[in-house]
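User: Isochorismatase. Structure?
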Amino acid sequence: MCLIEDTVLVIIDIQKKLAGVMCNKEKLVKNTSILIQAAQHLQIPILYTEQVPQKLGKTIPEISVYLENALHFEKASFSCCAEQTFMNALKTLNKKYVVVIGIEAHVCVYQTVRDLLKANYAIEIISDAIASRDIENKKIALERMKDMGATISSTEMLIFDWIKTAEHPKFREISRLVR
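Assistant: Predicted structure:
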């Protein structure tokens, strides 16, 4: 269970050259934009990464349009945790729960989740907001991450868990995101 006051959203490498070859790209983009907007409504901090953007391109415009106030990190390592600036920012935010989305599920997402779990963060993977080129790689990654202790969830499951009740002051804004 993610408590909004103790949660951060991490978006991994949804870049031009990578996103274009993902299975279910449209679903990935749609759910990522919903999660970003929900996090913004609820004032949940957002960190996003780009894997060697000089070669793989910047974050796709359909996503970057929502990231004006998010913390941005470039990386060469597959795991975000190997980048000290990323880890310093995460530690400074002092949050327990990390919601992880992005690509590729079996490489950068998997290695980041593994390392965040080792660093004692509680991890929630949003299964409909991660992707790989091959669906089998995504399935294996989800299985491995769950076995390591990550919670597997979906976009709608998470955003309604964040607000808990229809009486939440942001219920209307959140529910509009999925209509």
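The domain at 4-177 is CATH 3.40.50.850 (Rossmann fold). DSSP finds nine helices and six strands in the chain.
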